[in-house]
Every structure is written in structure tokens, then in C-alpha cells.
Amino acid sequence: MEKFNEIINGNQLVLVDFFATWCGPCKHMHPILEQLKEDMGDKVRILKLDVDKNAELSDVYRIQSVPTLMLFRGGQVLWRQSGAMPLEELKRVIEGF
Length: 97
Fold this sequence. Notes:
Blueprint lengths: L3 H5 L4 E7 L4 H17 L3 E7 L4 H6 L7 E6 L2 E7 L4 H9 L2
Parallel strand pairs: 1-2
Antiparallel strand pairs: 1-3, 3-4
């Protein structure tokens, strides 16, 4: 599997979902992200990172609550938000980039 930094440093938009298995709102986001992938196809790559299994990355990006969604391109953070959000709002954010 590609390394996280290799993925976010590419030219493709990458949406990273920092989540936890015990988190209710994170579970709510799962079908929304599945639908997002179906609707947007190759326009965005979606990565899910379990904060409990990736504590170092969670520290690097100062993840203090889950879910936290971050949008990357070329290694740069383009957008960030904590908390669950509706599909249409998430699509609008991504389409803005």
C-alpha cells in the first residue's frame, strides 16, 4: 500500500477521514463517504484513517475530535472540518477545488 505522504503529495484531491471505531458520528459518515466515492469517482480519493491505529499521524495533524475531514492536494491542506456533515455539503466543498 502506498504511504500516506505519497498519497497526499500527489496532484489528485485526497479526502482524509480521521475516524474512530467507537465514534457514533464517524459511523454516520461511512455511508456518506461511500456515496461520495460513487458520485465523484476519480475526482477525489478517499482515505479513512483510524486515529487509534495511527496516533502519530493524528498528532501531526492535531486531530482533537473525530470525525475530522481534511482535503489535500500536493501535500497542502486545502480544507479541514471536524464533525459529520451531509453529502451535498461535502460535495460542494470538494467541487470548489
